[in-house]
Amino acid sequence: MGWAARFLTAVSFLAAGVLFAPDAVLGGRSGGGVAAAKLAHILSLATAWGAGLWVTFIGGKIMFKFLPRHQFGSLQGMVFQAYFMLKSVCSAISVTAFAYLHPWKTALTIERYQLGFLIVALGCDLSNLLVITPMTIKIMMKRQKMEKDLGVGSEVGYSRNAEVAKKSPALAAMNRKFRMIHVLSSLASVMSFGSLAIHSRYLASKLDL
């Protein structure tokens, strides 16, 4: 993921530059530049929204239903790293394009709010990518090792973890730690998804079908 992290960093700095000095960074807004920015914004937003919809409500549910729990957890850990990288890149591109189209100094109040929602989505995705997901995977691996020692984790669907944790204080403590970090990850995901939904509603109001 080294190249992706470098690319994301470059796009994030570009987004910051465009936010504060769009003309200095990208030059004047020609007709072709505006059209390209609009296309980049729409495609990036649609990709981030579609990825969030699939991972949160469809793909994860299917994997949980049919995979052994430890296998499901390990696969989710790999998926989430790629997922949050994709969403972070898309959110950074959306922020860059929207800031280019609506410079802060001349933007309307509603446009500033929309840029704020996009920045919130980017911040939540970056938090999940760089901080929360690595912590979640680390704790998950420790818990899986503990569960294997206790003969738990190979079941599909319903977990025997809670039952075994009643007799294992160490596993119960690990469950609390995992639950806490998982709640943080879910909260960041919901905030990102919600921010993109609000911005999608704004874009829909601009369409003339």
UniProtKB/TrEMBL annotation:
GO cellular component, one term: membrane
Annotated compartments: Membrane
Transmembrane segments: 46-67, 79-101, 113-137, 183-204
Alphabetical UniProt keywords: Membrane, Signal, Transmembrane, Transmembrane helix
Domain TMEM205-like: 43-144
Alphabetized InterPro entries for the sequence: TMEM205-like (IPR025423), Xanthocillin_Biosynth-Assoc (IPR053009)
Signal peptide positions on this chain: 1-20
Superkingdom to which the source organism belongs: Eukaryota
PANTHER family assigned to the protein according to its UniProt record, in alphabetical order: LATE EMBRYOGENESIS ABUNDANT PLANTS LEA-RELATED (PTHR23241), OS11G0673100 PROTEIN (PTHR23241:SF103)
Protein name: TMEM205-like domain-containing protein
